[in-house]
Structure formats: C-alpha cells, structure tokens
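FW: tagging you since you asked about this chain on Friday. Here's the raw sequence from the shared folder, copied in full. Didn't touch anything.
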Amino acid sequence: MGISQAAIRYLLTIYELSDDGAAVRSVDISRRLEVTPASVVHMLGVLSAEGLAEKRYYGKVRLTERGIREANRLYTACALLKAYFTEYLEVDSETARADAVNCLCCLSERSLAQIEGKVLEERGCTA
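HL: got it, structure written out here
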C-alpha cells in the first residue's frame, strides 16, 4: 500500500494514542501533531477512504482492523529505524523518531528489511 508521509504520521499517531485499542478524540490527534482541527478532518477522510480508520459524526476515531495491521507494521518498522539511528548513528531520540517516520515512505521495502534485520541481528534476535 502506498500511503503518503502525512497519512503515515496520522496513522502512527492514532495507533499510539489508542495503545489499548480505545477510540481517540480528534482534538488529541490535532494537539499531538500540532496541526489544525481542519487538517485532522481532512486526513481522517483520506484514511477512511483507504479503509484504515473510521469516525462517526462528532464521534471518536478508531482504526479499522486493516488500519491496526498497517499501523502495527509501520510502528514496528519505525521503532527499528529509530533504534538504528540512535544506536548506530548516535542521533538523539527525538530527531531519530522524526527521521524514522520520514524514512517509512522514502526507503524501499528491501532497504527497510535490511536495516530491520541488522538491528535485530545486533540485538541477538532473528528477523
């Protein structure tokens, strides 16, 4: 699935805010991403059209099953990229997180897999 960098940011934010599967308020998404409520409404429309999220009129936001799977995949890749940047490149945590999110839509699946494999290998895990 080829989703935009902005959509990735929103998907990850919703996923992180709903760590126990709870519904998320639009205002919380807006605050976390430091964007306007109108931007949130627009992106929720995009995510809904892709079948990744759903929001009832004046209701809270939930990821669909498909959205949870995609967000989980992205979150895992983001965490491993962040680890690579902090552990191997000695980038500070905040910058590493932002760079990891940016890389999710720029790097090929092969490059992502190679970096993930390297981090897991160094930690004694199997990929």
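FW: The beta strands are 53-55, 61-63.
HL: agreed, and The chain has two domains: 5-69, 75-121.
FW: great, closing this out.
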